[in-house]
Design a protein that fits this description.
The chain is α+β, with helices and mostly antiparallel strands. The protein has a single domain, classed as Deoxyribonuclease I, Chain A. Helix content is about 20%, strand content about 25%. It has 5 helices and 14 strands. The strands form 4 sheets. A 6-stranded mixed sheet has the order 4-5-6-7-11-8. A 3-stranded antiparallel sheet has the order 1-2-3, with no helix packed on it. The longest helix has 24 residues. The protein starts with 7 loop residues before the first helix and ends with a strand.
Length: about 240
Amino acid sequence: MQEVKAQAGDVQGRFEEMAGLKGHFHFAEKKGYSGVAVYTRHAPSDVIVGYGSSEFDAEGRYVELRFDTPGRKLSLISCYFPSGSSGEERQQAKFRFLDEFDPHLARLKTQRDFILCGDVNIAHKEQDLKNWRGNRKNSGFLPQERAWMTKLLDETGLIDVYRRLQPDATDAAYTWWSNRGQAYAKNVGWRLDYHLATPAVAQLARRESIYKQEKFSDHAPITVEYEMNLSSRLSSRA
């Protein structure tokens, strides 16, 4: 889960556990802002809160659960990338985040397999949003952001798991819709929510779905089911 907009006091006694799943969180210092969570049935071997950023760890953007065994190192990460849509100041902050975050993921990839479930706030290609022509100068589809995603996949070597399973999907792929106008009703959407995985784990992805039967927010949950060797099947959601 990303952008939970809660503090520890809001969660305590209410949302630490839900449906038999235990929650692990990274809260922002600022109230009502950002925040990420992972709920799991399986007890992690370690929990990492924040990725070591002097600027962005205060914003509650990263929690990593490690499920290590003698024969495997595996992490599940929930991450909320900054949005730059509010103005140039936040767009520059987003660029600083991206500059920090790719090296972090590259280092992590040398140490362990992982699945990052996140609101990335970037539509990578033209097929990832309805009105791509009209958004080429807007945050979320800027050339620099798209180039960052291309580098992450082509050079850093992560896999866009949804696209591995659904390489040609367009309208069905959207996970976010503006609250303005009739964007949701007309399916004028963007694909902003991703599973990004190391190659070995991405190969274990079997099925995906985007849940649109109910509308919870401006995002729709994306689910990918992975067939894991040591814990039967592990289903993770972003």
